[in-house]
Please model this.
Amino acid sequence: QVQLVESGGGLVQAGGSLRLSCVYSGRTFSSYGWFRQAPGKEREFVAGISYSGSSTHYGDSVKGRFTISRDNAKNTVYLQTNNLKPEDTAVYYCALLSRFYPPVGNSWGQGTQVTVSS
Model:
């Protein structure tokens, strides 16, 4: 059984950056991803990364601004978010991907809040 713990969220001004982290345990040789959910909206795929880190893909709304990476020695997946916009405000969730593409999340962390002020 996998456990996921996110951190790194916070309040930032538009144009700023945050690095989110997700420490996973229980399923090392797996793909992981980030999703987000804003109030009143459906959960949205943000980014996914394969076990080796050699393959990544992104949701259209974050391409060119966000970067997903991982450090398997630390059992951690990162999401570097740059040039943040108010519409990026959401709870960000780390997920074990049961399918890499199209992405399907299986197990979820508790989420970390990202708030971008204009």
